[in-house]
Amino acid sequence: MRVLYSVVTVLTGTTLASAQLTFNITQALQPGNLQKYKCLNNDRLAAEMPECIRQCQADGDGCAVDGFAYHCVNCNVYSDLIEPCAFPPSLGGYGTFILAELGIARPIVSNMCNFFSVTLYAAYAGCPQPLSKRKTDEIVVNEPTITTT
Fold this sequence. Notes:
This protein is mainly alpha-helical. It has helices spanning 2-11, 25-28, 33-37, 42-48, 51-57, 68-73, 75-86, 99-119, 133-142, and strands at residues 21-24, 145-148. The protein has one domain (2-148).
């Protein structure tokens, strides 16, 4: 799963040196998004992603594996962990990920992380999976945030 956040970092212009949460409230709150991301887990997300990304999704960063709010706000740490697994040697990794697949993954991850950066755990209300709310809150409180509408 960590590759998803590398995709966001590499393709959305967010630099690893600049750890700030950036999100668009209007886009995140579009009709249907809450239902789309309700109780999101790795199996549902992996079904939308290119095959090469799925092999890296099981790698964790010490938090609940299905807690996408945490993974999205913790993308800088996740990126450092996943890039070697997902990226091909030409990009410094040992994986089979190609740029065409980055293009497929980018909008999926970008929209998902924008949603979870805005709503945090709203889509997990009443869901069975364990989450890392305290760790997420600690990151959010200590990060500069940019909000656009």
